[in-house]
Amino acid sequence: MQSGNRLAAVDLGSNSFRLEIGRIEHGEFRRTEYLKETVRQGGGLDEGRNLTLPAMQAGWDCLARFGERLAGFKPSEVRAVATQTLREARNRDEFLLRANQVLGFPIDVISGREEARLIYQGVAHMLPNTEERRLVVDIGGRSTELILGQGRTPKVMESFRVGSIAWSKRYFPDGQFTRKSFEIAEVAATAVMDEAFEAYHPNHWDTAYGSAGTVGAISDVLIAAGWPSGQITMEGLDWILDRLVSAQSADRLRLAGMREDRKAIIGGGVSVMRSVFKLLKIQHMELASGGLRHGLICDLLGDTGDAGDLHVNSINRLARKFGVDRAHGQRVGNVATYLFKQLTNAGKRSADTENERLERKLYWAAELHEIGSHISHSDYHKHGAYILDNADAMGFSLSELHRLSLLVLGHRGKLRKIETALDDREMVCQLMCLRLAVILCHARRDPDLTGINLKQPDMQRTAIRLSCRADWAEAYPQSAHLLREEVLAWEKTPWQLEVRGL
To answer: What's the average model confidence in pLDDT over 241-262?
Structure first.
């Protein structure tokens, strides 16, 4: 990326929405603007885990203001992600439909481990690039991320469903502080995170770093009271606990350094922090200046600190874990992308970034189309779709994994099971190319593609045409039979497959 280019990161957290804007100068990111709004969307989930209308409206209003500031930015210059609240929200698609429009850029809902990776990436890039073994703790509104890493490489990542908003609502519902309520909240948090003890044992790290709002809020209070700057200790947490219990309620709390908007959720934040300190035997924690949004900037810069492409690494990891036949997956991927290039005319014009992106994802789906065979050969496409919908894959958002799962689910059998996805022309093109590739590679060897051509003759129609050379059907009768069956499958959808030369 050339010097002077703009970049922006949008973080839709459970407590606050943040926008970071900066420029690239001599290969480094320099912040030029930072906006933060306390939306507290994590407190807007009802008992059915649906976002209430006021919570959605508050988010839309904030994103509209961010969108005005981002007017003129290119899609390649902006990355927006949402975390635990939208991971939980059952009506997140309703929120995202309008949210994407008002922001002007797509918002990716990321998994807990992907959030953890980005947090570590952001923290590490704001620290000296040494071989120090680091524990990074990020206590958000509805989740807490724990990461072990060395230098700029994260090694162990986990996300736990415990946070300042969730714990405040559950254990301090009326803003009342008692020593007993703190004891109960700490025990409950420890129960959720107890499995972390072995993986994050003090023997595995040299320095503990804290990131995000809860850490910053606690640090601000301690600094205002005369404690050492940039450092949190158990003694400091004990002192804050005494002040909260003495105040008895959030309304009566008067603590120098604490913002008004933090009072309602400080009880939950302090109880979770104390639990982390006790569980992982932390003596002192350093305040980190980096965080999730800085990790997003690193991704935009392509400076992840990881070897190779994160997406490719994740695909390879899944393929190894589930014993995928890599040679066949790659064979199908090569044929599918060959057909996709023909269909999108990518070879007849200058490189199309969007088509290249779709082609890449199509190849990944082809590589993993048999991933469900590890569970059972019967209905393996359904098992594969489930795996991808529930996998933690670094570099992928939940929506990206869902799209891969739909391609895997739809690569064989009736198309009725994914009929709602057939409204998307890009999905149809990817899916048809994948299904045709699976058919052409049915003998598990490289197919004869001489004279094979796929195109959409009329962009106003929903018909796609596959042409074969005159002697192809006679040479490959089983493939020709499977193609005739495929024509019948598409007749039951709004799209049609025409095959010439059979």
So the answer is: 93
